[in-house]
Structures are given as structure tokens and as C-alpha cells.
Automatic annotation (TrEMBL):
Residues 1-270 form the Reverse transcriptase domain. Belongs to the bacterial reverse transcriptase family. The lineage of its organism: Bacteria, Pseudomonadati, Planctomycetota, Planctomycetia, Pirellulales. InterPro entries: DNA/RNA_pol_sf, GrpII_Intron_Splice-Mob/Def, RT_dom. It comes from Aureliella helgolandensis. GO terms for molecular function: RNA-directed DNA polymerase activity. Keywords: Nucleotidyltransferase, RNA-directed DNA polymerase, Transferase. This is Reverse transcriptase (RNA-dependent DNA polymerase).
Length: 281
């Protein structure tokens, strides 16, 4: 634990890395977008950011909600997005060593392809398959639970306060402001790490069981050699999700006993992320 993480976040090295990321991510934004003002005045803005972050005075602006055909998108301001990226850079180094290696969406754990390779390699030894995910995962993460998890790892009150504001954000939508009291933001550079941390307790508990387990964000697969071991694993999953106050998605829940025609394939779903699911042909 460290109470000097904010100094690291506000350092020239981290802020410049976050600034380079912002420039890449928003290089095709409209010429009227605020990102160009940030680029034009970056030296001045960086100096102000460093003072506000170290003093614990930085505050996020309300997000803008954009309504699209199939979903809504919440957009952070350019400076807020940069700050969140800087926090993500530092917290990844701080938290990653203590997070489970069975969470494959974290950088350095191999990603979806590595998870799939491990699943395929483990199939011959395991007859029973359980695959599920969390219903509306990001939208249903409870702030008090996530904050308590963060407080177990972090000892910088300024950073914890800022992380609370990241969770308890305000959103501007067609002339109205909405205070968010549940869930974390999609499309935010910090959210994948928060998504990994929130279910880390599940990862650790599953690692201690005599079953095969992999997770990619809120989607996981359990393989077991016997029905009895799989039932124990499912009971543990249900108990852990109840403690975290989230639910399994009723339409993305599969329980399969392998046979000669059973196999796994990779499907492109959920915005292009590679996921695993069992099928019978």
C-alpha cells in the first residue's frame, strides 16, 4: 500500500503517457472538440493538473450522454479522460500483481486468445462445462462494494476520493443532469481494471477449487471432471455473486456435458470482443 500514488499519477512521465494516449484516441474527433484545445494548451493544462491532483482538488466534469440506435454512450471530457488514463496506468502497476492471473482481459494475462487456448487444452480432461456472465455487469457494479475493495489496496485518501467521484459521476443529457449511484462508465480507460478488481474475489475462490476456470471481463468458463465438482463450483459462483449483489445473465447461461459432438468455438459478440461459449452440432 502507498499514500503517495497521487504524486506518481501527477508526474510528468505518467501525464505525458496519458496525453499521448488521448491524442491517439481522439485524433479523428471533430475540429470543434475540446481535445484540440487541450493539445494547443497542454503545457499550461498539465501544470494546472499537477497542482490540483497533488492538492486533492481535481474534480470531474459531468459526462455527455449521446443516444445511439442500439445504446447510449457516455463521454468524458478530454481532460477527465486523460486523468482517468493516468490513474489507470498507475493503478494497473499497483493492483495487477495482486489480481488473479485467471482474469484474462487484464494486460499481460494473454487476452481472449490465451483463454481459448487454455480451454481447448483442458477440454479432454473435463467432461462438464459451465459458462455464464453477469447481467449488465458495468451498469450493476455497486459503488460501496467497489470502493471497499479499492480501500483494501490503496492508502492515498486523495486518490480514493477521486475514485469515488469517478464512480458517483454526473451525466448531462438533453438539458438535464443525472447523478449516477450505481455502475461504472463504459468506454472509460479505468473501467476494465475496475471490472477485474470487482470480481477478483470470485477468481481467487475458483482458483482454490479443483476445477478449471478462466474469466474475460464478466464472462467466465468452468470445466470440471465430475458433476459433483461442477455443482460445488456453481454453488460457489452463486454465493459470491450474491455477496457482490449482482446476478447472472439469464440468457447467457450454459451448462453442458461433453459428448462426441460437443465443441467450443469463438464467436464475435458484445461489441467485437472474443468470447467462448459451448455448442452442440
Amino acid at each position: 500500500m502507498s499514500n503517495c500514488l497521487m504524486e506518481e499519477i501527477a508526474s510528468d512521465v505518467v501525464l505525458e503517457e496519458a496525453y499521448a494516449w488521448l491524442c491517439r484516441r481522439r485524433k479523428n474527433y471533430s475540429h470543434n472538440d475540446e481535445v484540440w484545445e487541450v493539445r494547443f494548451r497542454w503545457v499550461e493544462i498539465k501544470s494546472r493538473l499537477q497542482c490540483e491532483l497533488i492538492a486533492g482538488q481535481y474534480r470531474f466534469s459531468p459526462l455527455r450522454r449521446i443516444h445511439r440506435t442500439n445504446d447510449d454512450l457516455e463521454i468524458w471530457s478530454a481532460v477527465d479522460s486523460l486523468v482517468l488514463k493516468a490513474i489507470a496506468i498507475v493503478l494497473t502497476r499497483q493492483l495487477a500483481p495482486s489480481l488473479s492471473s485467471r482474469c484474462f482481459h487484464l494486460a499481460g494475462n494473454g487476452g481472449a486468445k490465451a483463454a481459448i487456448r487454455e480451454i481447448v487444452a483442458s477440454l479432454p480432461k473435463n467432461q462438464f462445462i459451465f459458462r455464464t456472465d453477469v447481467k449488465s455487469y458495468y451498469a450493476n457494479i455497486k459503488h460501496d462494494i467497489l470502493y471497499a475493495q479499492l480501500a483494501e489496496h490503496l492508502d492515498d485518501a486523495r486518490l480514493l476520493d477521486l475514485l469515488w467521484l469517478y464512480m458517483r459521476r454526473s451525466v448531462y443529457d438533453d438539458g438535464l443532469y443525472e447523478d449516477i449511484d450505481k455502475g461504472i462508465s463504459l468506454g472509460c480507460p479505468l473501467s476494465p481494471l475496475m471490472g477485474a478488481l470487482f470480481l477478483d474475489v470470485l477468481d481467487k475462490r475458483m482458483e482454490a477449487m479443483a476445477v478449471f476456470y478462466v474469466r474475460f471481463m464478466d464472462d467466465w468458463v468452468v470445466l470440471a471432471p465430475s458433476r459433483w465438482k461442477l455443482r460445488k463450483a456453481i454453488a460457489l459462483v452463486n454465493r459470491t455473486l450474491a455477496e457482490l449483489d449482482v446476478e447472472q445473465h439469464p440468457d447467457k447461461h450454459s451448462l453442458v456435458k461433453q459428448n462426441a459432438s460437443s465443441r467450443f468455438w469463438v464467436t464475435n459478440e458484445c461489441g467485437g470482443a472474443n468470447r467462448c461459449r459451448p455448442a452442440n452440432n
